Amino acid sequence: MSTSAPPVHTSADTPPRLLRVLDAITEISGRSTAWLTLIMVIATVTVVVLRRLFGIGSIGLQESVTYMHAAVFLLGAGYALKHGAQVRVDVLYRRFSRRSQAWIDAIGAIVFTLPFAIFVGWISLNFVTGSWQVAERSTDAGGLAYVYLLKSLVLVFAVSLTLAALAELVRASWTLIAGPQASAGGAHHVN
After folding, report:
1. Burial level of 139, CB count in 10 A (0-12/13-18/19+)?
2. In this structure, what are the phi and psi dihedrals at residue 54, rounded to the nearest 5 degrees?
3. Which of 36, 45, 125, 174 stands the most exposed, by the fewest C-beta atoms within 10 Å?
4. Cβ neighbours of residue 167 under 8 Å, at least 6 residues apart?
5. Of 119, 117, 121, which Cα lies nearest the Cα of 166?
6. Cα 47 from Cα 53, distance rounded (Å)
7. Degrees (nearest 5) of the Cα angle 103, 29, 118?
8. Nearest-angstrom CA–CA distance, 181 and 98
9. Exposed (0-12), middle (13-18) or buried (19+): which is 6, by Cβ within 10 Å?
């Protein structure tokens, strides 16, 4: 009877734990946020039907659609980055070697995405805390009483984008250190 040795897994086969954790956070956040689009469509249809067929208007329901739209955009940014949905010149990028792509991803994360996300978080801090201090409400009669929660999404956006950018940096570094085969299962890279 012959016994074969179990496959040997090297560190190049398994993404670093930090990358797996950051990707998992971004994935859960993005998939959860995606459900808001369905709820937003239902709310929008409800607003239109109530207004057109029954002559009933609801400022609160209309504002909730705006809140959900903001949430989808702001909370989905990290997910979009993870899955390569951001704007870039793919016509050139996809022609580069995996190693060159990793360099571009690393430089992009360090020079553009991380500074942008940190800057947005920093400049919005007073904006958000001021809104919380006064428990800011809608200025429209019948509007939502949670403007401070809406404004808080800007900080969540900054954190989400920072985590996704850190994951991109770790992924690119892993590719550069362990070799192009290390990221063959990468989230969005086109070979």
Report:
1. exposed
2. -120, -5
3. 45
4. 19, 22, 23, 26, 82
5. 117
6. 10
7. 50
8. 9
9. exposed
pTM strictly above 0.85: no
Q: How confident is the model at residue 58 (pLDDT cuts 50, 70, 90)?
A: confident
CA dist 147 and 164 (Å) reads 26
Using alpha carbons, select from 14, 8, 12 the residue that is nearest to residue 179. Answer: 12
Could you count the other beta carbons within 10 Å of the beta carbon of residue 30? 22
Side chain identity, residue 107: I
Say how far apart CA 188 and CA 191 lie, in whole Å. Answer: 10
Residue from 160, 176, 173 nearest 113 by CA: 160
Burial of residue 143 (number of CB atoms within 10 Å: 0-12, 13-18, 19+):
middle
- Is the confidence at residue 9, as pLDDT, over 50? no
Q: What is the residue-averaged pLDDT of the chain?
A: 85
Q: What is the mean pLDDT of residues 106-127?
A: 95
C-alpha closest to that of 17 among 169, 162, 170? 170
Q: Which of 20, 25, 19 is nearest to 169 (CA)?
A: 19
pLDDT of residue 85: 72
Assess contact for 83 and 23: CB atoms under 8 A. no
Task: Output the six-digit token pair for 165.
Answer: 């950018």
Region for residue 86 given its phi and psi (left: phi exceeds 0; alpha: psi -120 to 50; beta: otherwise): beta
